[in-house]
């Protein structure tokens, strides 16, 4: 096998695979090292609910045959209320989606090596020159990309990222059949992606039902293991216990049965990114991390991060005299903050405020959403302060004071 490439990518998730697709399409020699075996891929990394939107499908040329169900609306639920927003979406079969990215990358010229666990960077003169994998095997590249997610074996050893335990989110999901998808007294979830805010089910987080056709759906929950969760959590309850509690108490699941082999577990870090690159190296996707902290959307963000990393690599590699130094690769971080997550700080603040609120405020929040027009809500979702202010009430003063106190203690720069 060749041991020298233009770009070496660790990890074949959406970020790494998209970076490889883009670079291979530009004619660069690219190799992707993936821990899992090819015949089972992505059994161990099939961790995403895979709800996304047509804009992502169109931007990255994703075919319809990886879609389980196209949806027409997004639903927000509180313990006793709900809000429906017309919004086209798509629920992907995540495993098929990941396999498609690999196949398409190969067709464009990228090389994939499965059963290849990356362990450490190879250093030369203080710069990364390649990686070791599977113990003593080596491969070299002009640029190395870490797309391994929270494991981050390269980024951590290069001191590029620091993932914080207090911002670690965990989640669990099953696929079910026999769900009462249009239960009286609840929102109609046919052709819908639903997120529920309810501390009884997901303290300091949210749960979901994503319709996948007929009486089937993806059902799960996640929460961040921080003080928001501790404030509302039940003693000794695990993430599995909360999901079982929801299944036992929600009448929509009375006749539901789990679909064999359709269980997913995952984790991600929801935090402000720090450094994302150095000489000859970039960290992308959930290694950074990249997931939207407010609603948990990750696929589009990871794909975008892979794309802007490819742009940065191309900007150096296409010029013989442009070494991929940290200075020349800074375009990656510039594009990341401009195009991938332009409002990260504001969204982190919005996330903290949302999960501080009690269940009673969630019920009132649904009324507030009905009260405001779609343009104002869109602005609020993008972090517009005036639009967000219209969602607040005098009674929210204690929440805002608690948020301010928390942020002063954790990260003054977010204010």
Corresponding CATH architecture of the largest domain? 3-Layer(bba) Sandwich
| Helical/strand content category | alpha/beta
Put simply, the count of helices is 13
Number of domains: 3
CATH-derived topology of the largest domain: FAD/NAD(P)-binding domain
Helix content: 25-40%
Overall pLDDT level:
91
Strand/helix succession: EHEEHEEHEEEEHEEEEHHEEEHHHHHHH
Radius of gyration: 22 Å
In angstroms, what separates the terminal alpha carbons?
Answer: 51 Å
CATH class descriptor name of the largest domain: Alpha Beta
Total count of strands: 16
Query: How much β-strand is present in the residues?
Result: 25-35%
Flag low-confidence runs.
411-415
Shape: globular
CATH homologous superfamily designation of the largest domain: FAD/NAD(P)-binding domain
- Main sheet? 8 strands, mixed
Quick structural overview:
This protein has 415 residues and is an alpha/beta fold.
Structure description:
The protein is globular. It has three domains: 4-50 and 94-163 and 271-340, FAD/NAD(P)-binding domain (3-Layer(bba) Sandwich); 67-92 and 166-268, D-Amino Acid Oxidase, subunit A, domain 2 (D-Amino Acid Oxidase, Chain A, domain 2, 2-Layer Sandwich); 344-414. The protein has 13 helices and 16 strands. With 415 residues, the chain is an alpha/beta fold. The longest helix has 19 residues, at 299-317. Residues 5-306 form the FAD-binding domain.
